Amino acid sequence: MRVSGLVVAGCAALLALTEPASAVWKGYISHPLGFAFQSPVEMTPGTAAYRGTVAGQHRAMVWSATEDNIEYQVMVVDLNAQANQSAALLGEAEYMFQDGKKLLDDHVDRVETHYGRNLTIDLPNNGGRRLADFYFVNGRLISLQATILPANGDYENPDVVRFVDSIAFALEAAVDDATELTLPK
User: Fold this and answer.
1) Model confidence over 3-15: pLDDT tens digits?
2) Which of 2, 73, 78, 160 has its CA 20 to 30 A from that of 50?
3) pTM, entire model
4) What percent helix, strand, coil does the chain show, rounded to 5?
């Protein structure tokens, strides 16, 4: 009995030591922007230009990080002045994401009372695979995207799905120790 207990304890300790580093996830929340998400890596704030035929040109807030040849990105574009075109703006963002790429999956997503789209594409020239969720909430286009680069090659990696699907708009759904997102300057 005692020996088998030690074997079980030893196996449990060995499994704990071999658990991947990506198992530690960090929660993020933005009270001003009204959403939360989780990431396996520390996110860095920045900005980018967002352009669309319907949307026009806008400044996008972006939080991004790369780990194990997987790029994680959260993008928020304030389109409040055009909120009455929300369906067209959301459709345009989805179209620009998949245009010229091999579309593998496209389905409607729902988080709480908000509907969005989930898309998976293969990038041209064996550039990897990208998953994304798109939502238009409170006048903002919000997208979580994860790109598995060819150097990683694990196109079934569950971390990318967990990241993209971690978005929450009911802020009480955020993890208790969520860090407030630093807004880009």
Assistant:
1) 444 444 444 444 4
2) 160
3) 0.85
4) 30, 45, 30
